[in-house]
Amino acid sequence: MPVAITADEHETDTVYAARADARAQGAKVAEAMPYLPASSSPFVPAGVDPETLVWAETVAAGGYTHKAVARGTRLRLEDVSGEACAHLLVYNALEPWERINVADTQKIPWQAYLGAGHPLLSGDGRVLATIVSDDSGHHDAFCGTSTLERNLRRYGAGTADSAAPAGRELFTLAAAKHGLAPRDLAPSVSFFKGVQVQPDGALEWRGAAGAGAAVELVAELPLIVLIANVPHPIDPRPEYVSGLLRVHAWRSRPTAPDDPVWTVSPERTRAYLNTADYAGARGL
Amino acid sequence: MTAVSQLAGRSTAVGYLTVESERLLDPAAYAPGTVLEPGEPLVSGEVVLDEFVAARTAWSAVVRAGDVLTIVDVGANQSGDCLIYSAENTAERYSVPDTIVGNGNVYLDTGSVLYSTEGRPLATVVGNEIARQDTIGGACSKESNTLRYGHHTFAEHGCRESFLSEASRYGLGVRDLTSNINWFMNVPVEPDGSLGIVDGMSAPGKRVAIRAERDVLVLVSNCPQMNNPCNDFNPTPLRMVVTRPGGAA
């Protein structure tokens, strides 16, 4: 939350005073903020050379973030308190109508639940990102994110400026900042809150793995990454519970034929081949 | 905001009966043993539209609020891939996750509400004759076929291509495609998360019916897939009947 400052703490009666007052605020630190340069992050992940960082940020509970990243970027999401839920949409930054397709992401690997090694597939037969590590095991690709309508009903509020922002409202803003519109908001996946399907098709809430859980993904193409950090839509708790989400990204490399996930199944081999074919033709 | 009535495409249904219906309903045109049962609408009322969708082709219509669309699986186990848009603002469209969350279940059945991306009802399933109507399997495409079956299938037509062709009649494009419903397709989820398309549970003449809660544009791809059991390896026609309850029968 922003630090409350009352008007009488400011001297802003002239342009000079207002400029001095504005500049005096720059060194403040908030719980949720980006760290620039990224190498200055107070929370550099273990084993990562700070000089390779391209993105370091703590996202507020009920907040959102977004960035365009290069092919081969490794993205780490960490649930600081155990109450974060990172809703994710990824797009091919070069042709953003190519975007995550949740149905293909579940159907092509013959696996509904996300975990280490799982590819996030587009509808164009390519891998946009691969989950390369996961110590949470509590994720979901069925339920998407929350809507204004649902949050109004559940929490009495849901707009982006409210105390209970809905995921779709935040995605709308994040997408708009990359020139994308609501029609570009496809079904999303979410990390750090688990859902399981029962034999009759009903949903079972599995909650979180706990504080400090992290997942890492590698960008297989240049990506636009949109993240909304809001409660999972079937979180049964009556109150709006969210927590800080930490985001780091650094230069790494896309999945290659010598990586085990390339050959883990024939479907995935062909998905990586299609991705490499596209990247090669585009000179990436 | 794009409303269907403002688009260059049709605002009323256009039939696809360029294939003569006697050939369309001739069992000899399909795999040996095919039985074709055109059925009747699940909900009675004035018939405002009654069309067959030939195997492998696309179809669309605007269904008015309160009208009921019955889809008949004429030849058994024919996947009808289906997308639904608000006719007054096509940016608001069918949402798989909102439908799963809204109904608390990954399968559709009588009573299931088909929710939009904004979490509002677009339609309600008011009649259904098979268990486990699918909305998690998505649509086939030329591109995904290369992953699932090999690059030798790249020349084959897929539902995504049918959706794109049909959507283009309304000025809609690839950004407007999203995860869909697959009427009459069977996609179980095993306890370990394994999921996939298996043999269907439908039969000739089995039906599902949805009532439009608002004016909606419905796109259907009569699935052309020949590499998995979603069409029983034998694509057959679908019948689409729109009735207006309370109207003259």
Structure description:
The complex is a heterodimer of chains A (284) and B (249). By secondary structure, chain A is of the alpha+beta class. Helix content of chain A is 17%, strand content 26%. Chain A has helices spanning 15-23, 102-107, 148-155, 167-176, 266-281; strands at 53-59, 63-69, 73-79, 86-92, 119-121, 127-134, 139-140, 189-191, 194-197, 203-207, 213-219, 223-229, 245-251. Chain A has a six-stranded antiparallel sheet. A five-stranded antiparallel sheet of chain A has the order 2-12-4-8-7, covered by helices on one side. Chain A has a two-stranded antiparallel ribbon with strand order 9-10. The longest helix of chain A has 16 residues, at 266-281. The mean pLDDT of chain A is 97. Helix content of chain B is 12%, strand content 27%. Chain B is built from four helices and twelve strands. Chain B has helices spanning 21-24, 96-103, 142-148, 159-168, and strands at residues 46-53, 58-63, 68-73, 80-86, 107-108, 113-115, 121-128, 133-134, 181-183, 206-212, 216-222, 238-244. In chain B, the strands form three sheets. A six-stranded antiparallel sheet of chain B has the order 1-12-3-10-7-6. In chain B, strands 2-11-4-9 form a four-stranded antiparallel sheet, with helices on one face. Chain B is globular, with a radius of gyration of 17 Å. The model of chain B is unreliable at 6-18 (pLDDT under 50). Chains A and B meet through helix 2, helix 3 and helix 5 of A and helix 2 and helix 3 of B.
